[in-house]
């Protein structure tokens, strides 16, 4: 009986202490990488929608990046949420150039690492991210985007015998609208595909400097 009580207590501890579901900064970009030598700064408010009685959670996500080649760029990411702080980095490889194929579609693969630093009793965690993306222009200034965003999370300080890992998976339709040569309006909805992935929405701006 004491073992059962210990396991129950550990389970309750884990459930109550897991990181908040809002801890994602989204994709917020198309499948095209930045031009070589271009700097990028992006900022976007995000809202994650609570499920099963959970509260919605608001946060702000920021990115800073640099284009190393015509087909590769890298970004650092920061997210400020009610229950945690998110920090990460990723690289994007542009695999298929729309201007070089008849379909006009771009495709890329993004991969990276991130850390969530919990507050108010939430645990810290670390995760590996991977996101295949496609995008294509439907007008001169409007580009529609889609991604499958997967995050493989490992939670710190989990009680012995309990699972310390889980996976977030989002289907992410979005858009990128060119406002000028140096600014884009970007937006997306991340549709959660499993129990650990809550749906979110965000919209913001990306700025570019050469």
Structure, briefly:
The chain has 210 residues and is mainly beta. 8% of the residues lie in helices and 57% in strands.
SS class: mainly beta
What percentage of residues falls in helices of 4 or more residues? under 10%
What proportion strand?
over 45%
Q: What characteristic shape results from the CA principal axes?
A: globular
| Total helical segments | 1
Q: What is the CATH top level name?
A: Mainly Beta
Write down the domain tally.
1
End-to-end separation in angstroms reads 66 Å
Give the neighbour order of strands across the main sheet.
Answer: 1-2-3-4-5-6-7-8-9-10
- The overall pLDDT, averaged over residues, is 86
CATH topology: Porin
Biggest beta sheet attributes: 10 strands, antiparallel, barrel
Q: What is the N-to-C order of secondary-structure elements (H for helix, E for strand)?
A: HEEEEEEEEEE
Number of strands: 10
Radius of gyration: 19 Å
Low-confidence stretches: 1-22
């Amino acid at each position: 009986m004491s073992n059962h009580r210990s396991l129950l207590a550990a389970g309750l501890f884990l459930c109550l202490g897991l990181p908040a579901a809002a801890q994602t900064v989204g994709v917020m970009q198309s499948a095209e990488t930045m031009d070589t030598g271009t700097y990028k700064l992006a900022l976007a408010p995000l809202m994650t929608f609570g499920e099963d009685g959970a509260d919605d959670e608001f946060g702000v996500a920021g990115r800073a990046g640099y284009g190393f080649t015509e087909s590769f760029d890298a970004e650092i990411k920061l997210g400020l949420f009610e229950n945690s702080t998110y920090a990460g980095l990723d690289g994007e490889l542009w695999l298929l150039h729309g201007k070089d194929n008849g379909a006009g579609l771009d495709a890329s693969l993004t991969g990276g690492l991130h850390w969530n630093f919990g507050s108010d009793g939430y645990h810290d965690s670390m995760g590996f991210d991977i996101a295949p993306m496609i995008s294509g222009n439907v007008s001169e200034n409007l580009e529609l985007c889609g991604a499958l965003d997967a995050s493989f999370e490992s939670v710190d300080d989990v009680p012995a015998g309990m699972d310390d890992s889980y996976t977030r998976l989002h289907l992410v339709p979005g858009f990128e609208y060119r406002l000028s040569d140096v600014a884009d309006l970007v937006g997306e909805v991340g549709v959660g595909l499993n129990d650990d992935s809550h749906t979110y929405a965000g919209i913001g701006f990306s700025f570019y400097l050469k």
